[in-house]
Specification:
This protein has 127 residues and is an alpha/beta fold. Helices cover 40% and strands 24% of the residues. The termini are far apart.
């Protein structure tokens, strides 16, 4: 099962794509987006990890900039998308990004050990 949920952070609400395994979770996993957002690709990554038995949250980090009603699919995989994505991660900053990861990890803690994995900019945040 996968759906949008809301995480409360010190900086405001953030949607997160929640993908849950069938049965008992092996643990939790925070999937950190690329500079393009919590788009269909990142949501599918979350769902694949859930199929392997993990409870997964993929936060929409840019909600802190654009609001919770913004389109998480808005940035295309092209030069303009890269430009806009880099501007957004710069505006977001590492401190707020890490707070979102903390909020997601806290939400997943009842599932057992929690890890992080990230792609593109998300790899830096996850590390």
């Amino acid at each position: 099962m996968a759906e949008w949920i809301t995480l409360d952070t010190h900086h405001g609400p953030v949607r997160a794509w929640q993908a849950l395994p069938e049965g008992t979770a092996r643990g939790g996993l925070v999937v950190v987006q690329e500079i393009f957002g919590a788009n269909p690709h990142i949501r599918s990554v979350a769902e694949r990890f859930a199929a392997e038995g993990y409870a997964v949250l993929a936060p929409s980090f840019f909600d802190l900039l654009d609001g919770p009603d913004a389109d998480p699919d808005a940035l295309p995989y092209d030069a303009e998308g890269v430009k806009q994505g880099l501007e957004r991660v710069g505006a977001l900053g590492m401190e707020r990004a890490l707070e979102v990861v903390r909020a997601a990890a806290t939400r997943l803690a009842p599932q057992g050990k929690v890890g992080t994995v990230g792609y593109c900019w998300g790899g830096t945040v996850a590390m």
